[in-house]
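Quick one: co-fold with NDP.
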Amino acid sequence: MTAQLIDGNALSKQLRTDVAARVTALKAKGVTPGLAVILVGDNPASQVYVRNKVKACEDTGMHSVLETWPTTMTEAELLARVDAMNNDASIHGILVQLPLPAHMNAQRVIEAISPEKDVDGFHIASAGALMTGLPGFWPCTPYGCMKMLESIGYELKGKHAVVIGRSNIVGKPMAMMLLQQNATVTICHSATKDLKAMTLQADVIVAAVGKRNVLTADMVKPGAVVLDVGMNRNDEGKLCGDVDFAGVKEVAGWITPVPGGVGPMTITMLMVNTLESAERRAA
Ligand SMILES: NC(=O)C1=CN([C@@H]2O[C@H](COP(=O)(O)OP(=O)(O)OC[C@H]3O[C@@H](n4cnc5c(N)ncnc54)[C@H](OP(=O)(O)O)[C@@H]3O)[C@@H](O)[C@H]2O)C=CC1
Ligand SMILES: Nc1nc(=O)c2c([nH]1)NC[C@@H]1CN(c3ccc(C(=O)N[C@@H](CCC(=O)O)C(=O)O)cc3)C=[N+]21
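Sure, here it is.
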């Protein structure tokens, strides 16, 4: 058996067409959605990501501001820039690219972003809203994963979902979203004793670890849906996920590729969150 592919590029294209139409409608009302992206330091991977985010804004007709600061910037200086963006009426979403340099407290910087502009969904107010089922911004990566499940018409109610990874930006919010759709959710992490015993029970597996081949074919129940969040480099320097794609695609029912899977969906949901922030302001 060969799994069906969930194509993040194709789904993104569809969703961004809808975003672009809503941007046009909002502009007619005199509001142009605006995203501010702040990058500190010269991490080459981060530079690629932020450029992709700014380009996605331009493609959908949004306004964007990219600020790049040297690693020597102090936390106080960064907090001042966040504050300026909080008070800038042309900006509806603020993203401070992570990781930040070691001399900064990332959590403190995130909490400085106004929750109304927290399109990453990393603020404790956003996390609390997700956990309690109140309206708020959902973190883009797990939100994109939910859209991928929706795109294949997958009914989560009563299914067993296993999330590998428990970070505040991917694993934990992913588990909350799956729970909200009435899945039974297991969260695995580095202290999990028998990962394979957990994943073999899963109807849906989300791998969000950051290590190659965390999930191999022998760990997957035939027909399961496998979502690969991981972003790693293989020995040839090529981008790859956490899943042994070649092996797992022979067992799974559905699978997301890397690249072209969850990554583009993350950027798409950032556009959606920024648009909705602007729509709320215009309402
Ligand atoms: N596609 C996209 O858009 C995005 C991709 N990513 C990628 O997703 C991956 C995860 O990111 P992020 O959540 O930020 O990473 P973190 O490093 O914050 O979290 C990794 C998680 O994996 C767990 N873990 C580590 N080793 C194992 C193991 N052997 N078995 C089971 N669990 C393990 C850790 O456990 P513990 O908590 O016990 O340490 C931790 O909870 C990375 O590759 C990142 O680059 C991230 C964001 C967006
Ligand atoms: N404040 C903040 N918000 C983030 O959302 C955030 C962050 N910091 N720091 C880093 C991670 C990682 N992340 C990715 C987004 C898109 C791709 C993506 O588009 N990947 C393409 C490939 C890109 C390439 O070729 O390198 C793909 O999978 O097809 C990957 C990774 C967002 N993150």
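If it helps, The first strand starts at residue 4 and ends at 5.
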